[in-house]
Write a structure and sequence with these properties.
The complex is a heterodimer of chains A (173) and B (197). By secondary structure, chain A is mostly helical. Chain A is 81% helix and 0% strand. In chain A, helix 2 packs across helix 5, helix 5 runs antiparallel to helix 6 and helix 6 packs antiparallel against helix 8. Chain B is mainly α and 197 residues long. Chain B has eight helices and no strands. In chain B, helix 5 packs antiparallel against helix 6 and helix 6 packs antiparallel against helix 8. The two termini of chain B are 37 Å apart. The chains are: A mainly alpha (173), B mainly alpha (197).
């Protein structure tokens, strides 16, 4: 299994290199142009991450997070999700940077290879900023009546969170 | 990917976090820890971003190469028949079918920024009036459920926080995405039938 994960990155790099050479695409400028765009992606994450991580670090240090987590733990047990990940469920559809910051905090506090840390990572990797996505797509196209889009998308999110906890447990415990 | 989202909601959430932390720390005599944690939190964000930068740049480069050499277009051709079943109204609308499959394949490869314009174009092409059709709802639900093969940001975060094998969560992510997108589409179908009755 580890060999498969270890070969994903070199395999993808080789596949892209080969396809570009065969199709006579300028691979090197594509890579450097993309990397330049990646730099501005990173720069655009930084400000909101600083602001949100400050607030979340304070919330944890004050002891308020522990209380919130212990209040949420009966609900967490009921749906089979680590209690620390419940606040992540609440913020994920609303704010991408908020969810990223909270995810980083959960992973740091619980350990990157802990069950809770992995669950948070799977949750972040398999969901989107639902409300933002809906407003971008329908806003740009001038759709006013979104009908059942919001409830359906939120059901998808909820199932995603429960499934994230379930599959993390299956694979890692 | 990780957009800022609703500004008013975030302002309120941020203020609530700060005020509650202040009250809690004052009550339990942890004010010194609190102010130290604020500075540490800010600092750790910059450290993390620095360690993310390399992976995000490399991956953006690879994605750009995938786009330029036609891998994204190829994937769009492969997925078109499957998506035709999911979006019946694109059968007579070839342009919309192209936009839908380009949106789906860009998402699959993790080209979030490239996927959005295709998705918006698809909604515009399917549009008739100001009410969303079933196919539009399905398209947006598919986008909010985030179906992607390689979630680069979260892999970069795990690696930046010291994970030796940051990709070991990929199978769990794929299965989770599959469950959530199926649930979303099933829910959309259910709500749609209920509305037309």
């Amino acid at each position: 299994m580890e060999i498969i994960f270890a070969s994903i990155v070199p395999a993808v790099l080789s596949a892209v290199a080969l396809t570009c050479i065969l199709k006579k695409t300028d691979l090197y400028s594509a890579l450097t142009d993309g990397a330049k765009a990646g730099l501005s992606t990173t720069a655009s994450i930084l400000p909101s991450l600083v602001i949100m991580l400050t607030a979340i670090a304070m919330f944890r240090a004050s002891g308020a997070l522990d209380l919130l987590v212990s209040l949420l733990s009966p609900l967490a047990k009921l749906i089979g999700i680590p209690a620390e990940c419940i606040p992540l469920m609440l913020i994920r559809p609303l704010s991408g940077s908020g969810a990223l910051a909270l995810g980083v905090d959960i992973i740091t506090a619980n350990g990157v290879d802990s069950l809770t840390g992995r669950t948070a990572a799977v949750m972040l990797g398999s969901t989107e900023t639902t409300f933002y996505t809906i407003s971008v797509y329908f806003g740009a196209a001038g759709i006013k009546n979104t009908r059942h889009t919001i409830p359906s998308a939120l059901i998808a999110d909820l199932v995603g969170f429960v499934a994230a906890a379930f599959f993390t447990r299956i694979f890692f415990s | 990917m990780f957009e800022t989202g609703d500004f008013m909601a975030m302002s309120k959430i941020w203020s609530a976090l700060i005020l509650i932390s202040f009250i809690f720390a004052a009550k339990s005599g942890r004010l010194e820890t609190l102010s130290a944690s604020a500075l540490e939190g800010a600092e750790s964000a910059v450290t993390l971003c620095l360690s993310l930068a390399g992976i995000i740049c490399l991956w953006s480069g690879v994605l750009e190469a995938m786009k330029r050499c036609g891998m994204a277009d190829g994937l769009a051709c492969i997925t078109r028949p499957l998506l035709g079943r999911l979006f019946p109204s694109t059968k007579e609308n070839t342009e919309a079918a192209k936009a839908v499959s380009a949106n789906f394949s860009a998402n699959l490869l993790g080209l979030g920024n490239a996927a959005t314009p295709f998705g918006i174009r698809a909604v515009q092409l399917l549009k008739s009036g100001e009410t969303a059709t079933d196919d539009m709802c399905n398209l947006v639900v598919m986008n909010t459920a985030s179906v992607q093969l390689f979630p680069a940001t979260i892999a970069a975060v795990r690696s930046g926080l010291g994970c030796v094998s940051p990709l070991d969560i990929l199978p769990a992510i794929w299965l989770t995405s599959l469950c959530s997108v199926s649930a979303g589409l099933a829910a959309a179908k259910f709500f749609s039938k209920k509305q037309w009755k």
